[in-house]
Design brief:
The structure is a single chain. The chain contains six helices and twelve strands. The chain is an alpha/beta fold. The chain has three domains: 55 residues; 64 residues, Ubiquitin-like (UB roll) (Roll); 125 residues, Rossmann fold (3-Layer(aba) Sandwich). Strands 6-5-4-7-8-9-10-11-12 form a nine-stranded mixed sheet, with helices on one face. Strands 1-3-2 form a three-stranded mixed sheet. The longest helix has 52 residues.
């Protein structure tokens, strides 16, 4: 009987020790599990940083250009001068944008990373609204008054901007005056644009429209161009040689300048 009691006591003590050991191992495993998870996270982050910033796994291998119409892709690539072989993550996108923006015909440019291996250059070209003769060259000008590109022969669909005989402006050196002229051109209704021979610019506030039949429209400056455009169409139905809409509230028609 005593032996049986002792055996039961030892069995109970062994079960207690085993439960204690299991609890101890559970606590230790819980601690090591957090340590292991931390090590795995550090390894993944470190490996990712190395792969992105230092290895050749995500290197620059190509350049894509979109948005080009009149400019050759090879010219954009030459200006961009994107270094290949280095990590894509460290490519200097700002410097690439600055180099591409120096191309006269480029109005805006955005450079982004195209993972995993390419740089994407998206450009918007300037659109010509008129032409300006500068020396022996015919230059395009956009709505912002920026000169770009050149022509051997004037396009039939683009009006010319010229300086008047008594002009005190230099179209190439005075972007504000040129901007006034192109703002007027952009505001012209089709009925007037079809009659236009050229725009004559004598000063920043002196823009005239010379029509193909010799008639003259005194536009003044670019202010209230939308209102002036609405007035000039019915005004041109009247007899006369000079049509003055420089003060849109008081338009006049006369037979001589």
């Amino acid at each position: 009987m005593a032996r049986r009691v002792a055996r039961r006591r030892r069995t109970a003590e062994e079960r207690t020790r085993r439960r204690f050991v299991r609890r101890q191992w559970a606590r230790r495993w819980l601690t090591w599990r957090y340590v292991l998870a931390f090590v795995v996270v550090v390894a993944l982050v470190g490996g990712g940083i190395y792969a992105v910033y230092f290895s050749t796994a995500l290197s620059v291998q190509g350049v894509d250009v979109v948005g080009e119409e009149t400019i050759a892709t090879k010219d954009v690539l030459a200006a961009a001068d994107v270094p290949t072989g280095g990590p894509l993550a460290t490519a200097d996108l700002v410097a690439i944008e600055r180099r591409v923006a120096s191309i006269a015909v480029v109005r805006s440019v955005e450079v982004t990373r195209k993972w995993p291996h390419d740089v994407l250059i998206t450009i918007q070209e300037r659109e010509p609204v008129a032409i300006v003769k500068r020396g022996d060259l015919l230059r395009a000008v956009d709505v912002e008054g920026v000169l770009f590109g050149s022509y051997q022969r004037a396009p039939a669909d683009l009006p010319r901007i010229e300086t008047g005989a008594d002009a005190d402006v230099d179209l190439a050196a005075d972007p504000d005056a040129l901007r006034e002229a192109v703002t007027v051109v952009a505001a012209l209704p089709d009925e007037v644009a079809d009659l236009l021979d050229h725009v004559e610019l004598s000063g920043i506030d002196q823009v005239d429209l010379v029509l193909g039949d010799g008639r003259l429209v005194r536009w003044g400056n670019a202010d209230a161009s939308t209102e002036k455009a609405e007035i000039v169409v019915p005004l041109l139905q009247q007899d006369g040689q000079v049509f003055d809409v420089s003060v849109p509230g008081q338009p006049t028609v006369s037979d001589r300048p």
